[in-house]
Specification:
This protein is an alpha/beta fold and 511 residues long. It is built from 14 helices and 16 strands. Strand 7, helix 12 and strand 8 form a beta-alpha-beta unit. The relative contact order is 0.11.
């Protein structure tokens, strides 16, 4: 453990020295402000994954590492029955069982390409602290243990071979004390009584030999050492893999000593990207605390499955969403969202000025469940035909029409969308308006009251209407009540959604 800490400090000194040489002054939130990356505003759709040691038990949650030490929890009971009492079989003993023996990064990358996603990646480290890259900072990494492969590095190469950009998500700033029973999900300081109680438990959590995995006070670890390693890990991923997007889960980013460290780290990323000659972005999450990780003026705002998101957000934003109905990682017995639900949600988000990064859940061996593939590939087929209404678009002055309460009442869920729900987008250059109908309308008749003559589309009205993927102009009429469009006969009535391309007779009105 102490050798590891010394190595960390040396690594950190070297990276800090590098940063100082290229940094003219101490970073501030004002100095970090920048225009959002245009390519990400155009991309709209990305995919990442939760995959790691917690995928081995495949039980209930990716928080398995914490829950297994909570007496009386379902995870604790499962762990005891399956592997033994945590006193004899601690979390670190699951690491050798995470082998990824059937994993083929090229197959994953090809799947991502087929979904229509423009960027992809993985949670390179979750709360459990196990790293999915080849690290010189910490020994608990996938190259050194478990798969004995540089999982993120191999995946990044495969994704770039497919022409995709990359994302790395970090979930480990909360790891300090996170494993400990009686400590909340964000980790944090503990009192002496709880520390002593945990230390007397006999768990591996408090063994200094494993302190560089479990990172907690009863094991003799110090928060300042943890924070130093935290930033060293992120810098290492930046330098080794040059990700196009960084995302951080909730944690202490603007509290006490951490804020300047975080500021310097983010500046380091932007400066490095300038040296690479490419545009990068940082996603700024709103965690359960109700306070964005960083000031709301920085980066692109991110909401977990739309939690706490309003119907209108003034800055660019992205929702991240799991494909499953239970955990973010693979667990036995969970169900998966249909392509219809994913597509309807994507269309709604894009019409509101947002985007979606979808999380899929591979098994520990690296294989992807067939049900997930079916949904993702169906999304890709739809986007291949209708992507013009999604990619490189911007929100129009009217978001759409339909009963929004059925979405909001269920926490931004899209399983109940139908043909009464329509979402509008426009091409970035303002030449076209798109209407995405989230279901097949009765008798193929689309009636859009939001596009009646009371709404100015252009000074000259509408020139023509076509169906993306269709053969020619559609029959339509417009009056004070609505724009009525007839879908072509023989159309597949089981598509997730139908995208109309509306060409204005003049400049598209934006106000």
């Amino acid at each position: 453990m102490r050798k590891s800490i010394s190595k960390i400090k040396l690594f950190l000194w070297l990276t800090v020295l590098t940063a100082v040489l290229i940094r003219p002054a101490e970073a501030t939130w004002e100095s970090l402000r920048h225009e959002p990356a245009e390519w990400l505003l155009d991309a709209k759709f990305g995919i990442y994954t939760h995959w790691g040691v917690y995928s081995v038990p495949a039980f209930q949650t990716e928080w398995y590492a914490k829950r297994m030490y909570e007496a009386g929890s379902g995870v604790n009971k499962h762990h005891t029955e399956t592997y033994g009492d945590p006193k004899q079989f601690g979390y670190h003993k699951l690491v050798p069982l995470f082998k990824a023996e059937k994993w083929n990064p090229a197959e994953w990358a090809q799947l991502m390409k087929a979904t229509g996603a423009k960027y992809a990646g993985m949670a390179v480290v979750h709360h459990d602290g196990f790293l999915l890259w080849d690290s010189d900072v910490n020994r608990w990494n996938a190259k050194n243990m478990g798969p004995k492969r540089d999982c993120y590095g191999e995946y990044v190469k495969a994704l770039r071979d497919e022409g995709l950009k990359t994302i790395a998500t970090f979930h480990h700033i909360r790891t300090f004390n996170w494993y400990l029973p009686g400590v909340g999900g964000m980790g944090g300081a503990i009192g002496p009584e709880l520390a002593e109680k945990i230390k007397s438990s006999g768990w591996d959590l408090t063994n200094p030999e494993y302190g560089d995995l479990y990172w907690n006070e009863p094991a003799g670890c110090k928060y300042e050492d943890f924070l130093a390693e935290w930033q060293a890990k992120v810098r290492e991923v930046i330098d080794k893999y040059r990700p196009d997007v960084l995302w951080f889960d909730g944690g202490s980013f603007r509290e006490g000593d951490s804020e300047q460290i975080v500021l310097n780290l983010l500046e380091y990323y932007h400066n490095r990207a300038a040296g690479w000659g490419k545009s990068v972005e940082v996603l700024n999450k709103l965690p359960v605390t109700g306070r964005f990780n960083f000031p709301a003026e920085y980066g692109i705002l991110t909401f977990e499955e739309g939690r706490d998101r309003l119907g209108r957000v003034e800055r660019p934003w992205i929702d991240d969403m799991k494909i499953s109905n239970k955990a973010w990682c693979y667990v036995e017995g969970q169900k998966y969202k249909s392509a219809n639900e994913i597509i309807d949600g994507l269309a709604d988000r894009v019409a509101r000025g947002g985007g979606l990064v979808l999380n899929f859940s591979p098994r520990a061996d690296g294989t992807v469940p067939e049900e997930q593939k079916i949904s993702m590939l169906a999304v890709g087929r739809w986007l291949k035909t209708n992507g013009e209404a999604i990619f490189a678009t911007r929100p129009w002055k009217v978001t759409g029409e339909g009963d929004e309460t059925k979405l909001r009442a269920r926490g931004w869920k899209f399983g109940a969308c139908d043909a009464s729900d329509v979402r509008f987008t426009r091409s970035k250059d303002g030449r076209f308006l798109y209407a995405i109908i989230l279901g097949y309308p009765k008798a193929g008749q689309v009636k859009m009251r939001a596009l009646g003559e009371q709404t100015v589309i252009s000074k000259g009205g509408i020139r023509r209407v076509t169906l993306l993927g269709g053969d020619g102009p559609l029959s339509w009429k417009r009056d004070a009540v609505a724009l009525d469009v007839e879908l072509p006969e023989g159309i597949d009535q089981h598509q997730p959604a139908y995208a109309l391309k509306i060409e204005p007779a003049g400049k598209l009105s934006l106000e």
